[in-house]
Amino acid sequence: MDGFHPATGFGPDTARRYDDRPRGDEEASASFLAEHAGEGSALEFAIGTGRVALPLARHGVRVDGIELSPHMVARLREKPGGDALDVVVGDMVSETTGRTYPLVYLVFNTLFNILTQDGQVECFRNAARHLDEDGVFVVEAAPPWAWVRGEQYVDVERITPGSVTLDVNRYDHVTQLLDENHVNLSGDGVRLAPISCRLVWPSEMDLMARLAGLRLIERSGGWGGERFTASSPLHISVYGRA
C-alpha cells in the first residue's frame, strides 16, 4: 500500500481504540503461554497495549516486551500493572533486550506486519537469539486460506444504527501482500484505518524457523489444543532449537 509503514500504522488513534473490541481469547492464550514459560520469564514481540502480556503476568510470569509503536506502549503504561513490564521501543526484527528467555512469543498475526520475507526470517532469527537453550518460540497466525477470498473483496464488518464499518481488501498472490482498510462511515464523516500485511503459509514459517536454527515442535488449531485442519481459522505453532 503506497504510503503505509508499520511504524506509523499504529499511531495515537489506533492505540486509543485498540482495546475497544477485545478478542475474548486473552485468558486462554495467557494460560497456554504460562505453561511454556513455567516458572521463568517471557518476551513478547510486538507487545502492543499488553492485551496478552498483562494476563500472562497475572499468572506469575515476568513479561518483557519489544514494541515498535511508542503510542501502543503509552497505552500499555496506562493500564494496571503496565508500568511493571520492561518494554524496549524498537523493531522486533532486530531489537534486543539483552536477555534470554524460556519463552518468546508473537501473537495475533503480528508476524505479517513485517512486509518482506527477508524481514520475517530475521524476526525468527531474533527470536532464536533471545531463547534459552531449551526455550520455545510460539507464533499465533491465521493461515492465508482462512483470510483471503480472491484478489479483491469487501466485508461488512459492523453495522450500528449510526454507522457502518467496511473491511476493504486487495491481495497480491505474487508478493503475498494484503492491503486492507477498515472504512467507518457515520454521521461524523469517514474514518480510515489502513494496514498492510505479508501473509505467510504455515509451511513457509517452518522453513523460516529452520533458517533460524529452530524446528516445529507442535502445531494446534487454537489455544485449547484443537487439531489443526484445513478449516482452522488460526494456528498456534511452537518452535524449539533444531
UniProtKB/TrEMBL annotation:
Keyword Chaperone found: no
Protein name: Class I SAM-dependent methyltransferase
Enzyme Commission numbers on file: 2.1.-.-
GO BP: methylation
InterPro entries according to UniProt: Methyltransf_25, SAM-dependent_MTases_sf
Biased composition (Basic and acidic residues): 14-26
Residues annotated as domain Methyltransferase: 43-135
Primary enzyme class: transferase
One Pfam family from the record: Methyltransf_25
MF terms (GO), sorted A to Z: methyltransferase activity
Keyword terms of this UniProt record: Methyltransferase, Transferase
The keyword Acetylation is assigned to this record: no
Domain of life the protein comes from: Bacteria
Region annotation (Disordered) ranges: 1-29
